[in-house]
């Protein structure tokens, strides 16, 4: 079961088509950078889908531990990827304002050192995908 939305799929296809149109004009170094970025995005989406499915984060469950894990993952995606708040919230079947609120809540939890262990572990799993430029 895939949690990638049709919009995300279409966007990825457009990126790939643009890549192939430009391929003949790019140097080998630029081609390698673009391939690396596409592979990084693919890896993030695969890991993200696995985490969402594993923890059932796309559900409407309001259990505190589930909500905090969902908020932590939304915070990470908002902070460490180039996804918009609408794209991030779409992965969880939520409204974009949920992502904005999640950012605020997670920052408050971090400042109070009260982020749950499960959320910290999940963020540690995602840290391998952090953009080196940030």
Report on the structure:
- The longest helix has 28 residues.
- Helix 3 packs across helix 5, helix 3 packs parallel to helix 6 and helix 4 crosses helix 5.
- The chain is mainly α.
- It has one domain: Chromosomal Replication Initiator Protein Dnaa, Chain: A, CATH 1.10.1750.
- The two termini are 32 Å apart.
- 72% of the residues lie in helices and 0% in strands.
Could you give a quick summary of the protein structure above?
The chain has 134 residues and is mainly α. It is built from six helices and no strands.
- Average pLDDT works out at 81
How does CATH name the architecture?
Orthogonal Bundle
What fold name stands as the CATH topology? Chromosomal Replication Initiator Protein Dnaa, Chain: A
Look at the helices and sheets and give the structural class: mainly alpha
Helix content: over 70%
Number of strands: 0
End-to-end Cα distance, whole Å, is 32 Å
Q: Give the low-pLDDT segments.
A: none
Give the H and E element order.
HHHHHH
CATH homologous superfamily label: DnaA protein, C-terminal DNA-binding domain
SS element count, helices: 6
List the domain count as a whole number.
1
Rg over alpha carbons: 16 Å
Instruction: Determine and state the CATH class.
Output: Mainly Alpha
Shape verdict: elongated
Regarding quaternary structure, what we see is single chain
The major β-sheet equals: none
SS strand fraction: under 5%
